[in-house]
Amino acid sequence: MSGGDPTALARRFPQGFLFGTATAAYQIEGAHDADGKGPSIWDTFCRQPGAISTGETGDVACDHYHRWREDVALMRDLGLSAYRMSISWPRVIPDGVGKPNAAGLAFYDNLIDALLENGIRPFVTLYHWDLPQAMQDRGGWADPETALAFAAYASLVARRLGDRVRDWMTLNEPEVSAFAGHWVGVHAPGIKDFPMAVLASQNLLLAHRAAADAIRSAHSAAQVGIALNLSPCDPATDSPADHDAARRMDGYLNRWFLDPLFGRGYPEDMAELYAPYGRWDLRGYHGKLDFLGVNYYARRIVRAGGGPLRADRVDPEGEHTAIGWEVDPASFRRILARVRRDYGPRRMYVTENGAAYDDVVVDDRVDDPKRVRFLERHFDAAASAISDDVPLEGYFIWTLMDNFEWAHGTSKRFGIVHTNYATQRRRVKSSGDWYRRLIAAHREARTTASPTVPRAVRT
Ligand code: FCB
Question: Is residue 175 lining ligand 1, measured as CB closer than 6 Å?
Answer without folding.
Answer: no
